[in-house]
Specification:
- The chain has 829 residues and is α+β, with helices and mostly antiparallel strands.
- An 8-stranded parallel beta barrel has the order 13-14-18-19-20-21-22-29, surrounded by 7 helices. Strands 2-5-10-7-8-28-23 form a 7-stranded mixed sheet. Strands 30-31-32-37-34-35 form a 6-stranded antiparallel sheet.
- Helix 18 packs antiparallel against helix 19 (789-801) and helix 18 (758-780) crosses helix 21.
- The protein starts with a strand and ends with a helix.
Length: 829
């Protein structure tokens, strides 16, 4: 590391080096002295610096105060190269110390900037100092496996969005992006990439059975932002797989399967003709409407729309897709033979095309609100074909006339009122049959390929509820995610012993914190609890996923967007830069346009800007969801990501990877009756015993392991230290720490005890007593108590009495308890 620039943010710099917008000032707290933006959305400040070697890895070390509620967006101002958001406070206790962001980046310009912006009202950005280092290289992390013949757990990246390759990692070409992504994965010890190969409108590789389309943005040398696209993509997946083979990395192709061109082209969305009896493979809804759109933000992202969009001549979405009087949901009926044939052809093509590569491990299917392999909701699926099939296979007659124009809503009413369980169970079995046919299709090409089904909540929750902002949509009040998915046709329990099909649970650390806008501290409580509460407290769903043979977790990094005045524009005929950049994966693109975001003047040095920021829990809390996935699910694979590669938490990912990736990719046996606050698990395999301990919490926990015999010998799989103990082994697990060990088969754990810091335990007990007092105050005032507060109190009491302190803390920070606190505070004003 070579220091090339340093900023003391408490000092003043000239206008060519520092800018600010809003009431930005130097202040201090217990954490120290720092510069703080105004506590209003989009207030910001930034610094300008020079680098010598463009394209060489650099490191930005940013110290910021963890002293109050904050939501800070860091960026270079134009591209994703330096972008990451950090939030503090609220449901993660403050440390009142300085924390660090350590962001690896590849500068694409010699003249660089780093900018810090407040996102939410009352959540000011703040920085104490900044150091910019040039790095010699990113050496691969050494992870030595105990037995090379035993497959170990997978840790890696997962993307939702495939169009930011050349807008991130300092990359002007897709090959640069690939090379740097591989280098960063190996540097941090990650071995799995799950990346879209089928996105919103179909394949983004050169498909032989469906129309293809690929596009992406690029931040140019002069900072102009372009988007380029092609309907004839090269086989970049093959290029990636060859690279992964050489590097010893694994790849899963992700499918966000919302539409297929072959189905779009021939779909019947003429409602009058459908009511008259003409067949449709689009979903018929409970309100007698036909699902003729996903009715979400994805409609425009077909490359067939782009040329017209750039020239302002777009007069409708590709294939005539159109919104209507219905909600979000899958366009196509997953049980219709035409739909199933298209689906199976696609999966077969992917397996045949890429299954020859040993780096290709299978297909990951994103179960969204609009994925066409399920119904998503009980409001969908009342067409003629499906109803007749249900009657034939169950013997249950649906007494509605075949020509009745309102037969779809009448079927919904009859089935849900009279045969709800039979209807749900039948649909779940039919969807399972479809998934098994998909599995059989890909395994017929290569038996070890796997189908991973990701229960993606971030898009599904708004599809079911809109913005979740009602008491009835909170924990202990609404249905579990398991039940919601089951109503949509996907019953997790049906896949428990189904070979070749894996279930990943999607966790969402940050959606509650952006609160669907910039209100920040002024956001109603009902909008800030829905995701996190269910990630930790939805026991029915977590238990169902944890019982799978190879459960996994996808930690989805949400992002916030401030588009300003956004528009597309055609490139000027003499734009030589555009002509040079009109390339995707080395092949000329079909088109290129300018993407323009205009914001209020704030003295920033460049006009081309983008303000899209993934946001992460600050400090050590970044590891909370990794520890939760392992402790709760015994997750055999963990992926994380969303918009682009997060390179701001390298040290923590390395720390986790070294202990996680040495564990065999098999379910372990849980030791004892609880995994809270520490999970201890063991596996006897090939004459050796593996065991691990993981701490769910942000504080250290002392653990005493009891063994069944007097002499025990084992090895720390990270440090290589040989440990000899008698019947008792004591250690301290740090915040969210994972420790992994290997012993002979004779070493067995008889049990264990944990001791948490007395200050933590005392605080939890005091909070529990306070909330009971507050409940009595609200009750005596005659006001209505929060929905299901009794359930919350019961859960809290049981957890505390059983020493499940992590669960108890999550309950104390859940919606019902926080609502009580809010009501008492208002009464005291």
């Amino acid at each position: 590391m070579k220091l090339i620039k340093s900023f003391d943010c408490t000092q003043e710099y000239p206008a060519d080096t520092c800018f600010s917008y809003g009431d930005v000032r130097v202040t201090s707290s217990e954490a120290g002295k720092y510069r703080e933006a105004e506590a209003k959305p989009l207030s910001r400040f930034g610094y300008r610096f020079k680098v010598k070697d463009v394209g060489k890895p650099h490191l930005a070390v940013v110290r910021y105060p963890d002293d109050k509620r904050r939501f800070m967006c860091m960026m270079d101002g134009t591209s994703y190269d330096l972008t990451m958001g950090t939030f503090t406070g609220v449901k993660q206790p403050l440390t009142h110390k300085m924390q660090e962001i350590r962001r690896v980046f590849w500068p694409r310009w010699n003249d660089c900037s780093i900018v810090f912006m407040t996102w939410g009202n009352g959540e000011p950005a703040a920085v104490a100092d900044i150091q910019i280092y040039e790095l010699e290289d990113l050496p691969p992390l050494n992870i030595s496996k105990p037995d090379e013949n035993i497959p170990t757990r997978e840790l890696g990246l997962q993307f939702e969005d495939p169009c930011g390759m050349t807008f991130s990692m300092g990359a002007y070409t897709e090959q640069e992006w690939l090379d740097r992504t591989v280098k960063y994965m190996r540097y941090t010890g990650q071995n799995l990439l799950t990346y879209p190969i089928v996105w919103y409108h179909g394949p983004i590789y050169p498909s032989g059975c469906e129309p293809s389309g690929l596009f992406g943005g690029v931040a140019a040398p002069d900072r102009t932002i372009y988007a380029r696209w092609t309907a004839h993509p090269v086989d970049w997946v093959d290029t990636l797989l060859k690279k992964f083979e050489k590097e010893g990395l694994d790849f899963r192709g992700a499918l966000t399967l919302l539409r297929l061109g072959s189905l779009m082209e021939h779909m019947n969305i003429d409602l009058d003709s459908i009511k008259a009896g003409k067949d449709t493979y689009n979903n018929m809804l409970c309100n007698d409407q036909v699902q003729s759109s996903t009715r979400d933000w994805t409609m425009e992202y077909n490359v067939a729309n782009f040329e017209k969009q750039a020239n302002g001549k777009l007069d409708g979405w590709a294939y005539g897709e159109k919104s209507g009087p219905f909600g979000r949901g899958p366009m196509f009926n997953p049980l219709h033979p035409t739909v199933q044939k298209a689906i199976l052809n696609l999966f077969g093509e992917i397996a045949t095309r890429y299954g020859k590569s040993p780096a290709f491990k299978g297909i990951s299917l994103n179960m969204w609100h609009a994925t066409i392999l399920w119904y998503f909701t009980l409001k969908s699926g009342y067409d003629d074909y499906t109803t007749r099939l249900f009657e034939k296979e169950t013997g249950i007659h649906v007494p509605v006339g075949d020509k009745d124009p309102e037969r779809f809503s009448k079927r919904f009413q009859f089935l849900t009122e009279n045969h709800s369980e039979e209807w749900i169970n039948w649909r779940c079995m039919k969807i399972k049959d479809l998934f098994c046919r998909v599995r059989d299709t890909i395994t017929s090409v290569r038996p070890d390929l796997r189908l991973t089904v990701t229960m993606w909540t971030e898009t599904s929750i708004p599809g079911w509820f809109g913005t979740p902002d009602k008491p009835s949509q909170q924990i202990f009040a609404r249905k579990s995610l398991y039940e919601l998915y089951r109503e949509g046709g996907f019953d997790v329990n049906l896949y428990k012993n189904e070979p070749g099909i894996d279930i990943d649970y999607s966790m969402v650390p940050s959606r509650d914190r952006d609160a669907w806008g910039t209100k920040g501290a002024d956001t109603p409580l009902e909008k800030t609890c829905s995701f996190r509460d269910h990630d930790f407290l939805d026991k029915e769903t977590l238990d169902a996923v944890g019982k799978q043979e190879y459960p996994g977790a996808f930690i989805f990094d949400c992002w916030v967007e401030a588009w300003g005045e956004y528009s597309h524009a055609p490139c000027a005929p003499d734009d030589q830069q555009a002509e040079k950049l009109k390339v995707i994966w080395g092949k000329p693109a079909d088109g290129i346009r300018r993407d323009i975001c205009k914001y209020p003047e704030d003295n920033f040095w460049w006009n081309s800007q983008s303000r899209i920021t993934p946001h992460f829990q600050g400090g050590i809390y970044y590891l909370e969801y990794f520890a939760h996935a392992l402790a709760e699910l015994d997750a055999c694979r963990i992926t994380r990501g969303g918009l682009f590669n997060d390179t701001g938490h390298s040290d923590m990912i390395q720390q986790f990877a070294k202990a996680y990736r040495v564990l065999p990719a098999k379910k372990f046996e849980t030791i004892g009756t609880t995994t809270d606050p520490v999970a201890v698990r063991s596996l006897l395999l090939n004459g050796k015993r593996y065991f691990y301990l993981v701490n769910r919490e942000y504080y250290p926990v002392n653990v005493s392991l009891h063994f069944k015999k007097n002499e025990n010998h084992f090895t720390d799989l990270v440090t290589g230290q040989n440990i000899d103990v008698s019947e008792l082994f004591q250690l301290e697990l740090g915040p969210y720490e994972l420790r992994s060990f290997l012993s002979d088969s004779e070493t067995e754990i008889a049990g264990f005890e944990t001791v948490i810091p007395e200050t933590i335990k005392s605080a939890l007990l005091q909070e529990s007593e306070k909330v009971k007092t507050d409940i009595a105050k609200v009750k005596n005032s005659g006001k209505e108590l929060p929905v299901n507060i009794e359930k919350a109190v019961s859960e809290m009491g049981s957890a505390l009495s059983e020493g499940r302190y992590s669960y108890a803390r999550k309950v104390l920070n859940s919606y019902p308890m926080l609502k009580i606190e809010e009501m008492v505070e208002k009464d005291n004003e």
